[in-house]
Design brief:
This protein has 206 residues and is mainly α. The protein has seven helices and four strands, in the order H-E-E-H-H-E-H-E-H-H-H. The two termini are 30 Å apart.
Length: 206
């Protein structure tokens, strides 16, 4: 099992700087950006994506505790069936407007509210759906270690590997996230942040 660094072992200066950056950038840039996206969606959503504007999902957070992640909804509802942890993404459920939101990653903008609440950071391991995460804890020995830090809106595994689909892809994602935790620094966070902005600019989200 590879060694990993828990949050409490990370330098205090790094943790303070990371939290300060989260709050500063969310307030100055991402919150206004969310409002810019929100107002057109209030008009377009009833036409091209009928249903609730927001989607809340129970996900696994720091120390394996659950929290409710907030997103702009990108899929049609599916109340009678739940996707299994190793099932492929249900592309047929993504609406035309939802596809645009996912490509630009604008659908993630409401998660800045989770950042304000201290449930997430801008950069960190992406939080999985809570039931799927429980499955992976038992299936992947190192998986639990991803949750020794706050999960992130974007992360090293996300920019290196993209969307993880299936058990093997999740193993690779886990290895990348543990590597991030072991080597966490503001310079690494800034690099991941820059690569995320490039993905948004090129509309290469999933």
């Amino acid at each position: 099992m590879p060694a990993f660094v828990e949050t409490r072992a990370q330098p205090l200066a790094y943790r303070v700087a990371k939290r300060a950056f989260d709050l500063f950038f969310c307030t100055i840039f991402l919150f206004p950006a969310m409002l810019v996206v929100l107002f057109p969606l209030l008009v377009l959503n009833p036409i091209y994506n009928p249903g609730p504007l927001f989607f809340r999902q129970k996900r696994m957070g720091r120390d394996c505790k659950p929290f409710r992640a907030l997103k702009f909804r990108t899929m049609v509802g599916n109340p009678t069936q739940r996707r299994g942890p190793d099932d492929p993404l249900e592309m047929h459920r993504i609406t035309p407007l939802g596809r645009f939101l996912r490509l630009t990653r604008f659908d993630e903008l409401p998660q800045i509210l989770n950042v304000y609440l201290g449930e997430m950071s801008l950069i960190g391991p992406r939080p999985d759906y809570f039931a799927h995460a429980h499955h992976y804890i038992h299936a992947i020995p190192d998986y639990r270690h991803r949750y020794s830090v706050r999960p992130g809106i974007s992360g090293l595994a996300q920019i290196q590997l993209g969307y993880a689909e299936g058990i093997e892809a999740t193993r690779h994602k886990t290895a990348a996230d543990i590597d991030y935790i072991r080597n966490a620094s503001m310079s690494l966070d800034m690099w991941i942040f820059w690569r995320t902005m490039v993905t948004v600019w090129r509309m290469r989200g999933t």
